[in-house]
From TrEMBL:
Organism encoding this protein: Shouchella clausii (Alkalihalobacillus clausii)
GO molecular function: DNA binding
Keywords attached to this entry: DNA-binding
Name of the molecule in the record: XRE family transcriptional regulator
SUPFAM superfamilies reported for this sequence: lambda repressor-like DNA-binding domains (SSF47413)
């Protein structure tokens, strides 16, 4: 499994996230995000799934198996691009908060 570094970096910059912010959203370090973006590290399956969820893209897109970004977010057909992007960002924040609460109760 090889993530396409350019795609990850482009998606992160499109969302105006720092490596540290993205790492917090998916529960990895800034160093890990940097490694994924420069091709020195490969995310495990769970991390790849979380990246896809945060960006609203398919894992196939992140892996370079598809040229289509979307396909995993069912509201895209009904929303404008900007609305879909805002919804993805809110969803990523909600997931981040839920994961944070789970880790605090463990």
């Amino acid at each position: 499994m090889t993530i396409v570094p350019e795609r990850l970096k482009t998606l992160r910059k499109e969302r105006q996230l720092t490596q540290e912010q993205l790492g917090e959203l998916i529960n990895v370090t800034k160093v890990s995000i940097s490694g994924y973006e420069n091709g020195n590290r490969t995310p495990d399956t769970d991390t790849l799934r979380r990246l896809a969820d945060v960006f609203g893209v398919s894992t196939d897109y992140l892996l370079g198996r598809s040229k289509e970004k979307n396909g995993s977010f069912f509201y895209d057909n009904e929303l404008t691009h900007k609305e879909a992007q805002l919804l993805r960002e809110h969803l990523a924040f909600i997931r981040f908060q839920a994961n944070k609460k789970e880790s605090e109760t463990d």
